[in-house]
């Protein structure tokens, strides 16, 4: 995502309408707590610094905000953020924003760049119709699984559409007009359900299923 974040930052910095107060807010949604947590905001910060250095203009003050669900290990995240703050130019203020990205997280018109890597395939909930009928996402019985595949895939597709539309509406309110959003998530180009990706998940699910039945047998 590095080149995409770099282009987005340069666009935001070039646009005088988006940075009239020379203050910039950058947020990562679904940051997690490993080394990746600060990867995208670090790229954004570095690009901002280089851009203004080249122009020989003072850089804007930057707020870096990292979001994830409340049970994320924010203690680890905060320690990485402190390292980023030690860079003197530009002034960097860093913080965490616990909460779901399927809710409002930031004030209206306040964010200049949203990044999100590999997080938006996490839905807000399992599809209601499957939950009511007690249909699992992955049935251990292969025949049942194949029979139900269109129903299950359809329900998850509808839930994803609902969630993603909501996500875009919420972020649309929070973004400064003319600013940018860079997101990545796993996807598939064709309607064909059996692809390399589903094979990988199928095998993983089978292994987990076997492990679960072995544990059940021992109990
Ligand atoms: C696969 S990790 C990706 C982490 C990191 N962005 C990366 O690229 O390595 C997905 C992250 O999204 C977070 N997540 C899932 N649903 C979320 C939601 N509704 N709101 C905020 N974060 C969410 C998870 O807690 C998890 O940390």
UniProtKB/TrEMBL annotation:
A family per Pfam = Methyltransf_7
Q: Where are the transmembrane segments?
A: none
High-level lineage: Eukaryota, Viridiplantae, Streptophyta, Embryophyta, Tracheophyta
Protein keywords: Magnesium, Metal-binding
Q: Where is the signal peptide?
A: none
User: This chain belongs to which protein, by name?
Assistant: Salicylate O-methyltransferase
MF terms from GO for this chain are:
metal ion binding; methyltransferase activity
- Report whether Metal-binding shows up as a keyword of the record: yes
